[in-house]
Amino acid sequence: MFKGFYTAASGMLTQQRKTEMLTNNVANSNTPGFKEDRASIRTFPELLQKSVEKSLSGATKRSEIGSLATGVYMQEAIPNFVQGDMRDTGLKTDMALIDTDVPGNEDNKKGSIFFNVQNADGDMRYTRNGNFTLNSQGILTASNGYSVLDDNNNPIQLSNDNFTVSDDGVITGSNGETFRLGISYTDNPQMLTKEGDGLYRQEDGMDLDDAYTANGVEFQVKQGYLESSNVDTSKSMTEMMTAYRSFEANQKILQAYDQSMEKAANEIGKI
């Protein structure tokens, strides 16, 4: 069996998965608060090849030929939590988080802050998408219908959309009602699980820390703005073309192996 057969096949699968990831990035390039994914590609262990020769006297001679790669695989898609540009919408229900100073962990990885939202089952989720609206009951909701929470993890209910939001996240309604947006912080956002619709959750099911009381965390809430996606469309398209060319190259190698195997089975077997 040709060892390179599986090496080329693993390369095709890896580039296919990378292309799917990049396609999703480009498709969400206009989604507020979307964080692009980056591929983490790893190699399988290499094999060390040796040749064994026997002389006429019966002595055995071993010599190294070199290493043989056994393929690659896409280990995971890692979100890039770099903040996107701010876009002025003029809508009072739109809000954006500005990372003034958000420290990371001991590995010098950047931390991140999120709006707190709640799904229909009452579970906490986190998002950077501040494209909010008021539903028929006056509850502030995210674009997917989840309830936006205050700092006590209660839904925010307003009498109308004539409200203001201060830089420190305090919402003041036209009737004098006040709420403070629920905003959470993590020093390692890579540990969050991506759920789709711009939502994240803790892997262990625990809630994130309160951003207002977290040590060293400074941020602002900007009303009438949305955080744009941080996808670099031109870069993503270039990477898609590179992945496609790499897929094609592995495909041709696989075809060459297939032809060699066909000859080995049909022609050499006749001799």
From TrEMBL:
One family name in Pfam for this protein: LlgE_F_G_D1
SUPFAM superfamilies referenced in this protein's UniProt entry, alphabetically: Flagellar hook protein flgE
GO cellular component: bacterial-type flagellum basal body
Keyword presence, Metal-binding: no
Organism, as annotated: Niallia nealsonii
Residue span(s) of domain Flagellar basal-body/hook protein C-terminal: 222-266
Limits of the Flagellar basal body rod protein N-terminal domain: 5-35
InterPro entries reported in the protein's UniProt record: Flag_bb_rod_N, Flagellar_basal_body_rod_CS, Flagellar_FlgE/F/G, Flg_bb/hook_C_dom, FlgE/F/G-like, LlgE_F_G-like_D1
Start and end residues of each Flagellar hook protein FlgE/F/G-like D1 domain: 111-172
Organism placement in taxonomy: Bacteria, Bacillati, Bacillota, Bacilli, Bacillales
Main location, first listed in the record: other
Gene Ontology BP terms: bacterial-type flagellum-dependent swarming motility
Glycoprotein listed as a keyword: no
Name of protein: Flagellar biosynthesis protein FlgC
Keyword annotations of the record: Bacterial flagellum, Cell projection, Cilium, Flagellum
